[in-house]
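>> Question from a student workshop board

For tomorrow's exercise we were told to take the sequence and the ligand below, predict the bound structure, and bring the output to class. My setup keeps failing. Could a helper post the expected result so I can at least see what it should look like? The ligand is WT7.
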Amino acid sequence: MSNESLANLLKEERRFAPPAELAAAANVTAEAYEQAKADRLGFWAEQARRLSWETAPTETLDWSNPPFAKWFADGKLNVAYNCVDRHVENGNGDRVAIHFEGEPGDTRSITYAELQREVSKAANALIELGVETGDRVAIYLPMIPEAVIAMLACARIGAPHSLVFGGFSADALATRIHDADARVVITADGGYRRGKPSALKPAVDEALTRPGTENVRSVLVVRRTGQEDVAWTEGRDVWWHEIVERQSEAHTPEAFDAEHPLFILYTSGTTGKPKGILHTTGGYLTQVSYTHHAVFDLKPETDVFWCTADVGWVTGHSYIVYGPLSNGATEVLYEGTPDTPHQGRWWEIVQKYGVTILYTAPTAIRACMKWGDDIPAKFDLSSLRVLGSVGEPINPEAWVWYRKHIGADRTPVVDTWWQTETGGIMISPLPGVTETKPGSAQVALPGIAATVVDDDANEVPDGSGGYLVLTEPWPSMLRTIWGDDQRYLDTYWSRFENRYFAGDGAKKDEDGDIWLLGRVDDVMLVSGHNISTTEVESALVSHPKVAEAAVVGATDPQTTQAICAFVILRGGVDAEDAGLVEELRAHVGKQLGPIAKPKRILPVAELPKTRSGKIMRRLLRDVAENRTLGDVTTLTDSSVMDLIQAKLPAAGSED
Ligand code: WT7
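>> Workshop helper replied:
Here is what the output should look like for this input. Compare the format with yours to find the bug.
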C-alpha cells in the first residue's frame, strides 16, 4: 500500500492521553524505556527478581548458539510455587484467585489457599498415575477451574503440558497427542456451550484409537456436565473426583532448571502440520509476569482482572494462568459464550465481580458493536479502568467503540501485539505512559526490540511499511519447535539474518509508531500494488452500514489479484439495496485510493472464523475463486460456508 493511502488512513487519527490518576500511580513509567535501553539484559535480570527462585540466576542470556536461547540458565524455580504457594506464605491465602462463572450460572470462588490445596492434590494424583518429570500431559478441557489446576499441577511436577482447545476435533487432538508423545490426557465429560452440555470425552476416546497415541496410559476425566452415557475404558479412564479428592493436600514443589520445558502449544498457521511451540520455565514466567504487571497496571490488592480468552490458546496460558497468578491477581474465569443466555452476559459479569481490567479480542468487540450500544449501556461498567485487545489488528472504529461504550470514554485501551511463539506481550502501549492511537500497537515494550524492514532486511524509514521483525532475543521466546529444530530455523530465522521473522506486515507512522497489518500471506497484489487486507477491511467497517468485513485477493487475469470483500451489515441495513455495493466501493476509494476499491462486495450473514476469532481467509479465497473448499475442521461453524456459497452468484456474473 502506498504511503499516501496510509496517510489517508491516519488522517482521522485521534489520540488519547493516559488518565492523570492512572499515570500518577502507574506500575511502570517512561523511565523503564530508558533503563532498558541503557542495559537491556540488566533490565531483564531485574524483572526476573519479581519471581521467587530457589537458586537465583547469575546468568541472564546465553546466546552463544543462536537462535537457541537460554535465559537465566543457572537459576532454579518452581512455577506453581510462584503462582500459588508464595502468595499463601505472604499472608494472602484468603485472597480470591479465581471467580469462576459457569455458563449455566453456577459459580465458585477459589482463594489462593484453596488453589494451593487443589493443585497439590492434583499433582499427587498425577504422580500416582505414574507421571514423571519431563512426561508430557495433554489437557483437553472446557473453561473450568480444573483446567487451571491441571496446568499448575503439571508445572508443579515438571511435566510439560500440551493444551488442546476443547473445540478441536478428535483428529486434531490425536495429531497433537502423537506429536508430543503424551502419556496422560486430562479431559471432562463435557462443558457448557450456548446453553447446552457439549461432550468432550467421545473425542478423546476416538483420538485414542488413532495410530501414534498408544503411549497414553491414563485418561483423567473431570465430571462437569454429569452427562449419563460416558463411555469408559477400564484400566485407562479415571474420574478426577475419585483419584484427586482422596490425595494429600500437601505436596512439596521441586525446583527445576530455568530452561526446563513448561509447555508445548500447537499453532496451526496457514500450511503444514501444526507446530509444537516449546516454552520453558524461568524466562517465560519472568516476561509474562512483568508484562501483565506493566501493560495492565495490575494492583493485586484491588484489581479484578478478566481475560476472556480460552485457556487452550496462548493468551489463556500467559494471561489467565501464568501472568496473573504469578502476580497474585484476583481474576474471573468464564466458561461460556458472550451471548448466552443473552447478549449482555459479559457486561453482567463485569458488573457482578467489579472487573477493573478487561482483556479481549477485536472479533468479540465487533460482535458487541453489531448487537448494539444499548446492551452494555444497561450495566454498571464503572469499575473498569484498563481495556486490552489482542489477536488481530483492531480497526480504529472498534477501538473507539470499545473505549467509548465499554470504557466510558475514560479508560486507556492497550492494543497488545504478540504471538504463541513470543510467549508474552511484545508491542503495546503502557496505560500510564503512552498517548494512544486507535488501531496501533505503537511501541515495543521496555526490553523488547522490534522494527519494520523491507525485502532486503533494511529498516524502513518512518512513514513506510514492510515486515515486522524482532531484533534481539527476549525471555519468553519459543525455544524451538518440539522435535524439529530445523523447522524452527526455517520458519522464523531464515527470512532475515539474525532477526526473528514474525510473518506479519507492519508500518511505521511518522512518529515511528508501529501499525500491524495482518499476516504477510494476507497481503494482496493488485496491478502491482501491495494492499493489505486489514486496511481494506478497516476502511469498510468505517462505513456506518458495515459491522464486519473480510477481504481476500482472488486471482484475476487483468490485475493479478482482485479485491473481494465479504461484509456483515449493521442491524436494519437492507442487503438488497441496489446502491449499497457502489456506495461501499466509493467509500473505500475515498479512504484508501481508487486502487483499493473492492472489485466485488458480498453482503453475508456470518464470516468463517476459527475458534480463536481469526477469519479463515483461505476459505473465502476458495469461494472467491470458485474452488472446492479446503479443510474446514478448525472452523467454528461450518454451515457458515454453505450460506456464503449459496449467496455467491455464478462465477464472473458480477463483473
Ligand atoms: C498472530 C499471532 C497473541 C495471542 C493471540 C494470538 C496477530 C495478535 C495482534 C495485535 C495485530 C495481532 C498477528 C500475530 N495478532 N495480536 N494486537 N495486532 N495483530 O496468537 O494465534 O499465535 O497469533 O495474531 O498476526 O502474528 P497466535
